[in-house]
Amino acid sequence: MYRFYSKPNATKVRVVVVGEYDQENRILNLAVARCSKRDSFVRKKGRGIAEGRLSKGKYFDQMSMEEMPSFPMFMRIAKDIAEFVIDAPQEVVDEKFRSLKNL
Prior knowledge:
Elements: E1 2-5, E2 14-22, E3 27-35, H1 43-55, E4 61-64, H2 71-87, H3 90-101
Antiparallel strand pairs: 1-2, 2-3, 3-4
């Protein structure tokens, strides 16, 4: 399992991205947890939320890949996802997370 923790920034929103490669289906499954501006970021809690979503099949994204991604490749993918979650309009991100709750 891969894990990525975003760095603190001006928005004070932190993101945890976890990923797991499904060798049978050749898919990288990705799950995300986002910390609110009002919360204190706790790595363990964010990791637990993201890993829980991953284990329940509540994927933020799935990427088709012929082989298991290297750690640097996962880090680039996770960083892009984290930047999207941090920078996207709040309504877009909220809708994405609401759709995960309905799975």
